[in-house]
Every structure is written in structure tokens, then in C-alpha cells.
Amino acid sequence: MGIQIKRVYDELSATDGTRVLVDRLWPRGVSKKGARLDAWLKQIAPSPDLRRWWNHDRARLDEFAVRYRAELDTAPETTAAVQELRTLIARDEETRTTTTLLYGARDPMVNHARILADYLIDKA
Known about the structure:
Elements: E1 3-7, E2 18-21, H1 32-35, E3 39-40, H2 48-54, H3 61-74, H4 76-94, E4 99-103, H5 112-122
Parallel strand pairs: 1-4, 2-3, 2-4
Helix pairs in contact: 3-4
């Protein structure tokens, strides 16, 4: 799969392909026009309760990943968003285009978009 992750604050690139924001909250300081999004899948982000519990704590990352994957598999609104994202990815694969998952977190290693990308690849 041609999936990459990138901070929404990073420069737009010709290799971004389809740009999908996967955060529940709109990133601070980014205009909707400036984000240049193709889609915003709020429901694919961790639930508010899970996000607050995790609080981007590196020590909780493994447990967060387990809980987040469970949400992706079972929460009805989340599973619908996963299916929508899979449809976008399949379309992009047909045209040999990358799908870029955008997130607002500061740490490129400790964020839910990385877990989501791994989930999509593992479940392909």
C-alpha cells in the first residue's frame, strides 16, 4: 500500500497524493484552505476518552495501540470511517497515488496516525 503519514503542519509535497486528516480535532493555526485536504475522517481518530487517557504518554503507547486497534475493529462509527479510508486507499492504488494520513501531534513516532497506518497495512 502507498500509505504515508505526515504532520499537517509540514509543507505540502507533490508526493502527498490524497491528503486525509485523521484527527478528531482541527489542528490549531491551520486554515482549511491551507491544509489542502481531500478528506477529514474525524471518526477514525481515537475516542475522546481514549485520547484523554493516553495524553500522548510514551509509556502508555503500547497499551494505547491495543485499545485503539480495538476501537477500529468494533466501534460502529469508527469501522465506517475505516471502510471509507480503505476505499480511498484502493482508489489511490489503482492510480498509483499515495495516500497521506495527516495528524497534528508533535512527535512523529508517538501518534495515532502511525498506529492507524500499521493497522491498515496489517489488515490489508
